[in-house]
Amino acid sequence: MIVDALTPRDLPRCAEIEAELFAGDSPWPLSGFVSELAASYNHYFALRPESDAEVVGYAGISVLGPRGAHECEVHTIAVDPAHRGRGSGRALLDALLEVADAASAPVFLEVRTDNAVAISLYERSGFAVAGVRRNYYQPSGADAYTMVRPAAAEVNQS
């Protein structure tokens, strides 16, 4: 699998994957992906089986706040079900964490409380539950954990 930059030509496929994976919780439309990719503070990655192949997964992170006090927020990680269980989510998360580490920033994310596979991946990457957001996902009303990973510099000092 190859992780590289998400491009505008990838966005229709991302919207298809999104609609399949998050049908019960207001999936992002194509226009949402276009807006996200255009924002200068966002970094989006594509997962492909080989160079120039169709996207089978995507992930995005924002770098927010002033220089020296950045924080990062994971916006999404999604992998086509046919490509799961092969380290795909790990590869995408690693790309996001490289962005955060370059900014020396802590990383925040939300994850469904019933998504044990994702929670385990995040915990293995240094994230811990910081709180619960009740009824976070709509319209299903599913709860989410807010998870945080300290800045890499903080982790290395402990």
Q: If you had to describe this structure to a student in words, what would you say it looks like?
A:
The chain has a single domain (2-157), classed as 3-Layer(aba) Sandwich (Aminopeptidase). Helix content is 32%, strand content 33%. It contains 5 helices and 7 strands. The chain has helices at residues 11-21, 30-38, 88-102, 116-124, 152-157; strands spanning 2-5, 42-48, 57-64, 71-79, 107-112, 128-137, 142-149. It has a 7-stranded mixed sheet with strand order 1-2-3-4-5-7-6, sandwiched between helices. Strand 4, helix 3 and strand 5 form a beta-alpha-beta unit. The termini are far apart. The relative contact order is 0.15. The model has no long low-confidence stretch (mean pLDDT 91).
> Quick check: average pLDDT?
91
- How large is the count of helical segments? 5
CATH superfamily: Gcn5-related N-acetyltransferase (GNAT)
CATH class annotation:
Alpha Beta
Radius of gyration from the CA trace?
A: 15 Å
Query: What's the N-to-C terminus distance?
Result: 33 Å
CATH architecture: 3-Layer(aba) Sandwich
Order of helices and strands: EHHEEEHEHEEH
- Total number of β-strand segments? 7
